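Feature request disguised as a bug: please show the residue count (62) next to WNK lysine deficient protein kinase 4 in the output. Example input:
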Amino acid sequence: TLSPQEEPAPLPALPVPLPDPSNEGKPQLVGRFQVTSSKEPAEPLPLQPTSPTLSGSPKPST
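Example output, currently without the count:
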């Protein structure tokens, strides 16, 4: 009896916090995406030049 009672307790608890974090998570995700985008382009920039450099190195070498 305790198991079934405990199960329904956590179930309703999850759906309740879900809506709260979901609404807040949406704006947070957007903010995170923006922050990630700013950081991502900064990192990929140096990474991108590195890729062409590696590709170019083997080409001239060959």
